[in-house]
């Protein structure tokens, strides 16, 4: 039994500013590669950092401010490892980390929230956010270049993968989705990692709705967390669970320039937490 409930004591992360390149708050949709990739122990050669998957900004193209002491620790863990890791054994480049981009996941926000948390005497925290992310993907019935991501994380001592599975089962069951499967996966910043699938009655197949895992020591320890602190985290699309819940078979019917505006007139208002 996990030691918390999914609807208590979660704080919302600030994700509302669209252009901002500083390393401190407010946090924005535009961020630099350091927070979006490097601080998450994602190597600079990773294909997700290529322009085929990421929208880079032309103006301003780079950030001017990063916490230099922390940058040195991230550079070292990438190049030569530490904390029981061998690292990636390559020459880490600051100019790559400075590049501004439209965030590819709201985990860029989680990274900065955790960095700020690690600078204080340790207190368990639970964070969430719901906001837009951007990926240079081909648009089809299940993919968009701009969509919404639900992000959640719990930072505490003694957490396990069982806690993560318990939270995810509870969360999705409250949305009416009890048919879940978890598949082992690889993420640079989580180990172990799991992809989350739910069965879509309309498409008659299992559809990936999210990703999850436990943040790696190579990510948490350079921030300054104690060695016994664990972070479980999950990120999922808002549109795909909505498709499954309401039997929509084309994501473009929910979000984007092809949405039929009469859809709002034909459907009731969604009221949450109102009797």
UniProtKB/TrEMBL annotation:
Classification via Pfam families: tRNA-synt_2d (PF01409)
A GO term, aspect molecular function: ATP binding
Domain Aminoacyl-transfer RNA synthetases class-II family profile: 124-268
InterPro entries: aa-tRNA-synth_II, aa-tRNA-synth_II/BPL/LPL, Phe-tRNA-synth_IIc_asu, Phenylalanyl-tRNA_Synthase
GO cellular component, one term: cytosol
Cofactors: Mg(2+)
E.C. number(s) listed in UniProt: 6.1.1.20
Localization in the cell: Cytoplasm
CDD domains xrefs: PheRS_alpha_core
Catalysed reactions, semicolon-separated: tRNA(Phe) + L-phenylalanine + ATP = L-phenylalanyl-tRNA(Phe) + AMP + diphosphate + H(+)
Keywords, in A-Z order: Aminoacyl-tRNA synthetase, ATP-binding, Cytoplasm, Ligase, Magnesium, Metal-binding, Nucleotide-binding, Protein biosynthesis
Chief place of localization: cytoplasm
BP GO annotations: phenylalanyl-tRNA aminoacylation
Highest taxon in the source lineage: Eukaryota
Family indicated by similarity: Belongs to the class-II aminoacyl-tRNA synthetase family. Phe-tRNA synthetase alpha subunit type 2 subfamily.
Assembly with partners or alone: Tetramer of two alpha and two beta subunits.
Name of this protein: phenylalanine--tRNA ligase
Organism this protein belongs to: Gossypium lobatum
Native organism taxonomy: Eukaryota, Viridiplantae, Streptophyta, Embryophyta, Tracheophyta
